[in-house]
Design goal:
Strand content of chain A: 25-35%
Radius of gyration of chain A: 20 Å
Number of domains of chain B: 2
Shape of chain A: elongated
Shape of chain B: elongated
Helix content of chain B: 10-25%
Strand order of the largest sheet of chain A: 5-13-6-7-10-9-12
Structural class of chain A: alpha+beta
Helix content of chain A: 10-25%
Largest interface: A-B, 50 and 45 residues
Radius of gyration of chain B: 20 Å
Strand order of the largest sheet of chain B: 13-20-17-18-15-14-21
Strand content of chain B: 25-35%
Largest sheet of chain A: 7 strands, mixed
CATH architecture of the largest domain in chain A: Beta Barrel
CATH topology of the largest domain in chain A: Cyclophilin
Number of strands of chain A: 13
Number of domains of chain A: 2
Oligomer: heterodimer
Number of helices of chain B: 4
Distance between the termini of chain A: 46 Å
Number of strands of chain B: 21
Amino acid sequence: MNVSNLDIYPLGDQAITIQLGDYINASTNQEVIQIFTHLQNHPINGITDIIPAYSSITIVYDLAQFSIPSFYSSRFDWIKSRLLQELELINPVQHSNKSIKIPVCYNNEFGLDLLYLSVHTNLSIEEIIERHTNKIYTVYMIGFLPGFPYMASVDPGIQMNRRAVPRQIVPKGSVGIAGEQTGIYPLDSPGGWQLIGQTPLNLFDVIKEIPCLLSPGDSVEFYAIKEKEFWEIKKAVNE
Amino acid sequence: MSILIIKPGLYSTIQDEGRKGFQHLGINPNGAMDTCAMQTANALVLNDASEAVLEFYFPAPVIQFNRPAFIALSGADFTAEINGIDIPINQPVFIPANALLQFKAKKWGQVAYLSVQGGFELSEWLNSYSTNVKAAVGGFEGRILKQGDTIELNLKNASSINSKDCSVMPWKASVHQFYHTNALRFIPGHELEQLTPSSQTNLCAGDFSILPQSDRMGYRLQGPMLEQSDKKEMISSAVTKGTVQLLPNGQCIVLMADHQTTGGYPRIAHIISADLPTLSQKGSNDTIQFIPVTIEEAEKILMLQTQHLQQLKNACILQLDAYHRH
């Protein structure tokens, strides 16, 4: 990996951020995921968390765990050069992350903003569903809530900014749009994304060993289901 | 073999050092607000630093112990008493069965910790006992404590206790090293340079008061309006405990233990790890200032704090050993 144009800076005194760009871009995000995968597979003692975002990755550490040669002026300098060494070892190979199909019931009850979106975009509800299901999205990052996937990119024809006033409660499973991003609320939570439907799947399940359905780098496709099927799947996944 | 929550207090939760290794899934660390006080409470009863403790605010809980226990309190001083007798904080105490622990008044600080030797008998979620209230998991049933909750105590590691009366051990942890003045030290954030020069000056010259809406997620501050010279939309990136974000209204929020893993507001500063215990003991209407330090200084201060905690742990082992032999 070419490390010459990276912006590397401390995020407090126990974390370091490597920034590869300042925009949402598929190939930049792919590099972020490559670094993430590499560092997960080649652990460095003292590192506690590796957090990929759209175009940056942050490594959190416990600095008391580092023993560093005395010619480094700080532990930050040491971990920075240590990470750069690792980055140079990364081959730009495609990683095969998992690919998941997610059922969504798109109707006015689950998709409280579907009508608004339809009026605003001049598209019928059927066309909105068609455009939302007709793409393969990449999970760029997970944040905001446990298991909340930030996915892109939404068809330009159905892109819509966040609501001016966020809702106090967005129900668990709600699928929303914010600009070119689409996401799924894993828990009941306040939220401002434009809601178009709901999935019966659990994005976050505390009893699972890996409690989140999606990870950064995964591919996601949506498919439309009827309300009857929604309740059947919901019953099955919670049994 | 348990404790009974007679009154739950304001916001009592089980916490530990925090949940590490799952932030890439949006699962934040949670954990104690004042990690030094949490570790001190554990050290005093010879628990591992990572043992679960009870964290609470004022009004504090009222707790009945149904068996003898070796306990310690640290952090805020809420003037504790056991069966009507005052007991000090930062000193381990043997207590008899059926002891009633309650707190009379808020004397100093905001957040207090109770450790019990051997810890609580709870199951970990993702390697941690910390309560994640939002996801309703971890700690005790994933929630703040309620009246009538019974928390089992873990007896396996507890030293043999034979005390009919409350007995305060004659040694005290020195904790003043953990708490700094009102001037909190920070290292510059990546977006600090986006502030106008006068706002950069105001960050270091102004007084910031802590607003009542502050909680375990973040401390909201009211201070001089800070402005960006170039209002650039930022895309979401990681944030951490101590990160100072600039909100659209020109005021700041300092992210605390329950912060989200990522955020999209400008990160103008990061309060150094060693000063987060000080901040967590500040409450509504307290005033703080910001002083810049380099990353080298921040690391040095944190290493000194870590060493002090280690020395404290060693001293507690020696003291209890000497006490038993005596």
